[in-house]
Structures are given as C-alpha cells and as structure tokens.
Design a protein that fits this description.
single chain; alpha+beta; five-stranded antiparallel β-sheet; four-stranded antiparallel β-sheet; 30 helices; 18 strands; 55% helix; 10% strand; globular
C-alpha cells in the first residue's frame, strides 16, 4: 500500500488502536465485571427511577417527575419516541454505550478530536496520538469518575463541530454541511448546555477570524454568499433535530432557579442578589485561579485534588513519625483512606487538576510559532476566551459584566469547566503545529520556532519550580483538618502539622514540575534527532506519541485506577430499609415523604422509593426553592422538635408541609422511626376563604399565617380575572381516581361549587386542566400549588401535561432528523462512489 493510501485508510488502524487503548485503561470493566462508582450516576438512578418505571408502564416519555421536590419537569430521562438521531448517537459510541458507557465516552473523545483533526488535514498519525492523549486529560478522567458523562459527550462532539467548520471554510460544502448538521445534533442531544455555550464563543471567534481573512484575501463575496449561509443552514438543521429538547429546557429555565426572581432579597443577601439567574456567589464558586491554569503544564502545581494520598517519606510522614512513632506513622500514611486536601487553590473542592500533558502544551506553543496568521489567530483567541471564562470571579471586570448583560450567562455555574473546551482548541493547535513541522521538514523557520517554543516552555517550567517555594500554599481549613483528624488542641502541634503540610505541597509541586521537565526534554530530544535525520518521520511520531500518551496516562491513573473500580452486581445502588418498606405498605396512589435523617434537598435515595418533599437537582423550580428557603426549612425544624417532645402539632404549625401532603416523615431506618403526619391535607380539597394579596412577597409572608385546610392565598395581580369565589359546604369533596406523572383524574362533588386547591406543584408551561372535558384556568395558589374553581354538582377533573414544546417541537425535530440523516448518507455515499470510481 502506498504512503498516500496508508494515510487515506488510516482509520482502519486508528479506530482499533483507540479501542485497544480504551480496553487497556478500562480493563476492569471489560474483563473483571467491575465499574466505576460514579456518584452522579448513583444520584441519577435515584432521581429518575420513578420516571423510568412510569415510562415503561405508560409508553410515554415522563416529562414530569413526581418523586422529587413534590413534582418538577423531568428532562433528564425524557426522550423522543422514534428519535432518528438515536442512530447517530449509537454510532458515535460504536453501538456499545449501553454496556460500556464509561469507557466508550473516553473513546468518543478520541474519535471526536481525531475526526476533527482529519478535517484540518493533520497528519493522521500525529492526530491519533494527540487525540488519544487529549482524551486522558485529568479533567475529563475525574469528570468521568464523578459521572459527568454528558459534559464529556458535549466536549467530544465539539471537536466534530470545529472540524465541520474547517470543511465548510475549505468549500467542501456537502460533507462539511452534513458533518455540521450531524455534530450540532449530537452536541445538543448531549444536553450539557454550559459546555455548548462556551463552545459557541470558540466557534464565533473562529468564524470572525475566517471572515477577516476572507476580506483580506479578496474572497469576501464568496464567504458571505456561500460559506456563511451553508454553515448557518447546516447548524440550524442540526439544532432543529433537538428543537424539542432545547425548547423544553428553555421553557423550564424561565421558571427554574436560573430564571426570574419574584421575591425580594433576604436580609444580608442584598449585595449577592440578582434579578434573574443564579446569585453571583453561587455561580462563581468554582472559579479557577489564574496561576492555577499552570496545571496544564504540571498537574500537582496547585496540590492536585482535595483528597490526595501523601508521600510515604515526605514532610508530613516525618512529622507524623515524630508524634506517633515510625511504625504508626507508616501505617497511617499507607492506609488508602488517609487522604488530605493537598489542593490549595480558590475552588471549594476539586477532584483533580486540569492537566492536558506538558508535550501537548509544548506542541501548542510550537504551533503558535510555525502556523500562519490565519490559523494562529483563532487558536489564540479560542484559548484565551476559555481561560478568561474559567477564571470566573478572579477576572470580575470581564465575567461579572458578561454575567449581568449576556443572555444565558447567569444560568451557569462552575466556570472552571470552560477550560475543558479550551483544551480542544489547544489539542487542535498542538496537532496542527507538530504536523506542519513533520510534514514540511526541517528548515530555518522551523528551527527558530522550535527554539522559541522549547525555550518558552522550559523557561516557564523553571520559573514554576522556583516560584513553588515563594507561593502561599496554605489552605483555609488546614488547621481544622488536623484538629478534627487527630483531636489536637495544642496550637503549637497544629502549627507543626500545617507547616509540614505546606512543605508536602511544595515538595509535590516541584516533583511534578521536574517530571514535566523530563518529558519535555525527552520530546525536544526526539524532535532534535529528527532534525538531524537520526530519527525517521515514522519513528519520531512513534517516540513522541509514546511520550505524550505515557505522560497523561500515568497522571490519569492517579485518579482512576484499579482501586477505583468495584464489582458490578445486578442490585440497585438503592436498597429499601425497614422504614421505606413500612411506608410502601400504604397503597394511596399519591402522597409525599420527608426524610429528616439526611440533607433532604441534596439526596436522591428517598426519591427512588417515594414521592419526596426533597430530592437532588441543581435546577429546581424557583418557587419551590423559595418555599424551601423561607418555609419548609423552618417547618422541618418545628416538626422535628414537635416529634421529639411528643407535642401535638396543629395544621397551622407546618402549613407548607401539610398542603404538600407530607403524609410520612422518616426519622431513622427502622419501621418504628416512621412518623405519620395526621395533618397532611391529601390530594385536593375545597377551601372556604381565599386571601387576596398583591405580590409574591405578600404571598410568601402570608403563607406562614394561614390554616391551609380552609384558607388559600392568590396573588390577584397575577390573576386579576380569575374566579376565586368560595362556597364551601359540609360534604363537598374531591377524590383522586387515577394517577400517573403526566395524567391525573379526580372526581369532585359540591353543593354550590367553589375554589379547590390541588396538592400539585404549579407549572404553567404545559399543564392543562379540564372539567368534564372543557379547559379551565389553573391559578397559582399558596405560592406553589394549583387551584381551580369548580362549579356545583358532580364533575370529572383532569390534569394533563402535554407541552407544545414537546408535542410540536418533537414533530419538527423528527422531520429535521430525517433530513440530517439523508444529508449525511448522501455525503458518505458520494465519497464511497468517488473512491469506487477511482
């Protein structure tokens, strides 16, 4: 096979090599029936279980989850029946995602970047080892361990999007358009909109750069008349395949904690309060320090993670030896559970650094010296913008300004993850730069670029080694750690331990910098040997590939290794205890449970078994979050104290919990630790008085003063024309006759009719109420519930959740998906036809 054909059919070798690397790294999954215990996936199982059961029973996508926070929109497990893009998704995971989702996510990163690089016409073998090393970035590996797979899917598909742009800019319109539509569809299907948001800025910078050079080269007319329209049409087609997903998400964002705030700030929170979106302190908690970005070159330059093993012969081990003796100190340090927060950066917690490999960083810097201005400009711009986003609160003039004025910016938190997108750009620049050096050979320009890039990288590492001893490496909780861990009260002893911890950090920082210097010098030596023709092109690629991949592989294994995997079982992560079993004896189709044994609003176990007052979600409804902060949290304390003292609580003592039909409270794991609430108000009831208020603040304030069993609150400014007349009579009743998450039926009987309150969370975007088949208005009642006026007599009342965003959006999405697949098949078919013809 000729060299040209070897490159053309490189995928026949590259894809199997990627698969082999994936199998080796994740061998416990493939050969030992083990898996990572990913915390977010454990939570996902708990929060989605009810929806999955409902979907199997009804054949409908759930859309609404009744098991969390008394009911909320369900987007995580919802899907479009017969979605054609499922084929693309399965193909991108090599049809193995169900069985081996974790390892195939890493392979997706490899393939996404490799295909993207091939679109940039990079040497396929250089592209292969850069893509493989890129996928083992510690940020991606630690994200995978936490279960943040959608984040990594979005990053992997981001490489395809940039590659499709290159094809379109090169006037390969059919293939580029097909890849653009398909990759945008997959990007949005991944559903991690924060990564997509940051990626859009990189795409914009790339597009503006090409626009400038089209103008400069006299190609502006073609660019504006062909390139731009085709690119926009292809991207729009891809986005349309996920219209239902984007539409429902955007719709929900309006009413979630990312949306408009209706209440005034709590006392003391005025400065942190925003009119819309997340509060700044919450949104920017995980901001990466500017110096912390140097972990791209040396992983432990900021201490590593918040849970790190310490060295057996390091400063901390020696300090332990002084206090506890050599053998005891050795036992403590060798204990795999003995981990300390060696990370000392600005983030509250981190699972590890963002380390992409010192050689990839060097190749990127090399690319900035050897590539032409057209390529260099967008690579610099794309990297810089993601760094600036990642710095978050440490670059307030930029990020706080955008947070206040840019649409969507105030919906996201953890800005540090923007650098995960920046690493795509740096990997592209690294491959482009190295490929140019190898493909074009050694010349005077290459030599100068090599010396500048090598000197810059080496000089920076030397400064990092020197600077490690000058930095403040102490953490804010260091003293408290040793107080709690060893029960120390001696301030002098605590100071000795904290000093030893600082020395441990400096030692590890310098050790990793020296490690990076070693890999850099080895890489520089290989390129130098290539320049002197001591190494062939093929051999230098192999040597650099082994060094680059070996570097990141070893660091990644610090965080995900053999010990990270546990034996798979057929059992769920969630097992019912005696308290759960006791409650499940109740066959009432719809009641709620409050778990007082844990953080009720940050756990999903209760949701696995019951319809929970709490739950686990970062996108709660805004009004429900308000209720938690200003009513439920206080009432939980009142309830707990009352149960402990044996007091008989009135309905009025915990109005929010009672109107949410909290029938049971869990006080412990035993059956005897289940408290049955006699004041739970049931599924629905008539009231004999509606209190009119004029604002959300009044509505919330009044809630704590009412007896919800016969009083209700309505903001008449929101509903000036609503029928809220009451006429309660003894014997008036409402009964729930049929329940599933999207369909509820009641029968109501009343002498004169009146206003009824339903213990279901108010959400206006999609819920439709009907009385005897005729639509009626739903009124937000008691700040969070639904209320409707029911006429006299006997009636059937239904609530159905069929939002247009799903019904209409789903239809459009299916049509766009079929067009996208046809376009992709046409592009691939044309390539095959042309190759066959040749």
């Amino acid at each position: 096979m000729s060299k040209g054909n070897l490159k053309k059919y490189s995928w026949l070798l590259v894809i199997p090599v990627f698969f082999i690397l994936t199998v080796i790294y994740f061998s416990p999954e493939f050969f030992d029936n083990k898996s990572l215990q990913q915390s977010d996936l454990v939570h996902f199982e708990g929060m989605s279980h009810a929806s999955q059961v409902e979907a199997e029973k009804t054949g409908e996508s759930p859309l609404w989850n009744s098991a969390m926070f008394s009911g909320m929109p369900e987007l995580l497990t919802s899907s479009l029946k017969g979605d054609p893009t499922h084929f693309l998704y399965s193909l991108s995971m090599l049809f193995m995602y169900d069985s081996f989702e974790t390892p195939m996510t890493v392979m997706l990163l490899m393939l996404g970047v490799w295909i993207g690089l091939m679109c940039f016409r990079v040497n396929p073998w250089v592209a292969a080892f850069i893509a493989a090393a890129f996928s083992l970035n510690t940020f991606y590996i630690t994200s995978l361990e936490a279960g943040h797979v959608t984040k990594l899917w979005a990053i992997g598909y981001g490489g395809l999007i940039l590659g499709s742009m290159r094809l379109i800019f090169d006037r390969k319109f059919l293939l580029g358009g097909a890849l653009m539509a398909s990759s945008v569809a997959l990007e949005l299907r991944a559903g991690h909109y924060q990564i997509t948001y940051y990626l859009c800025f990189v795409v914009l910078i790339y597009g503006l750069s090409e626009l400038y050079f089209a103008f400069k080269n006299g190609e502006l007319n073609t660019f504006l008349m062909k390139v731009v329209p085709i690119g926009i049409l292809a991207a729009s087609l891809g986005a349309s395949t996920q219209l239902w997903r984007v539409w429902t998400t955007q719709e929900y964002a309006t009413y979630s904690i990312r949306g408009q705030k209706e209440l005034s700030a709590l006392p003391g929170q005025e400065n942190n309060h925003t009119e819309e979106g997340l509060d700044k302190d919450y949104a920017f908690s995980w901001s990466e320090g500017k110096m912390e970005s140097l972990t791209l070159l040396a992983p432990n330059f900021f201490g590593g993670s918040s849970q790190e093993r310490v060295s057996e012969d390091g400063p901390l081990a020696k300090q332990l030896e002084k206090v506890a003796g050599r053998q005891q100190a050795k036992n403590i340090v060798q204990n795999p559970n003995f981990k300390l927060p060696l990370y000392f950066g600005e983030q509250p917690y981190t699972g590890g650094p963002i380390y992409q490999g010192v050689l990839i960083s060097f190749f990127f810097i090399l690319g900035l010296f050897v590539l032409d201005a057209r390529q260099r400009s967008w690579l610099i711009g794309g990297t810089l913008i993601t760094l600036m986003f990642a710095w978050g609160k440490h670059l307030q003039w930029f990020n706080y300004t955008l947070f206040d004025i840019l649409p969507g910016m105030n919906k996201f938190r953890t800005p540090a993850m923007a650098l995960g997108v920046g690493c795509i750009v740096m990997a592209l620049g690294a491959a482009l730069g190295l490929s140019k050096v190898i493909e074009e050979g050694w010349n005077e320009k290459t030599q100068k670029a090599f010396l500048k890039a090598g000197g810059t990288t080496l000089g920076l590492l030397i400064l990092m080694w020197i600077g490690a001893g000058m930095m403040d490496v102490s953490g804010p909780r260091d003293a408290a750690i040793f107080q709690q861990m060893f029960g120390l009260n001696d301030q002098n002893m605590i100071r000795q331990f904290t000093n030893a911890l600082d020395e441990e950090r400096i030692s590890l920082m310098r050790a990793d910098v020296m490690r990076s210097i070693f890999f850099l010098l080895a890489g520089l030596g290989a390129i130098f040997a290539f320049s002197k023709k001591k190494l062939s092109t093929s051999l230098v690629i192999v040597v650099l590939g082994v060094l680059t991949l070996g570097d990141v592989w070893v660091v990644a294994k610090r965080y995900v290794n053999e010990a990270s995997f546990q034996k798979k079982t057929n059992k769920t992560f969630h097992a019912a205890n005696a308290a759960d079993k006791e409650i499940l004896k109740d066959k009432d189709p719809n009641y709620r449970v409050l778990n007082l044994t844990t953080n009720s609003f940050n756990e999903s176990t209760t949701s696995y078994f019951h319809k929970s007052i709490g739950g686990y979600s970062a996108i709660k409804l805004r009004r429900y979050q308000d209720l938690i902060e200003r009513a439920i949290s206080r009432e939980m304390q009142v309830l707990a104290n009352g149960i402990q003292k044996g007091d008989t609580l009135s309905v009025k003592a915990t109005p929010a919990l009672n109107m949410l039909n909290m029938k049971y409270a869990i006080l412990g794991p035993s059956a005897q630790a289940v408290f049955r609430n006699p004041n739970a108000l049931g599924n629905a009831w008539f009231v004999d008085k509606v209190i009119k208020v004029n604002s959300a603040d009044e509505e919330m304030e009044t809630l704590s003063t009412i007896n919800p069993s016969f009083q209700a609150i309505v903001d008449v400014n929101k509903y000036p024309n609503a029928n809220i007349a009451t006429s309660y009579n003894e014997g008036d009743n409402i009964k729930l006759t049929s329940f599933n998450q999207r369909r509820l039926k009641y029968t109501a009987e009343s002498k004169n009719g009146g206003f009824a309150v339903f213990s279901e969370v108010w959400y206006p975007a999609g819920w439709v109420a009907k009385i005897d088949g005729e639509p009626v208005d739903i009124v937000c009642t008691n700040y969070i519930l639904r209320g409707i006026h029911i006429p006299a007599g006997k009636h059937e009342i239904t609530f159905d959740f069929d939002p247009n965003s799903f019904v209409v959006g789903g239809l459009i999405s299916k049509i766009a998906s079929y067009i996208t697949l046809l376009l992709l098949f046409a592009a691939v078919g044309l390539i095959v036809y042309n190759e066959t013809k040749k």
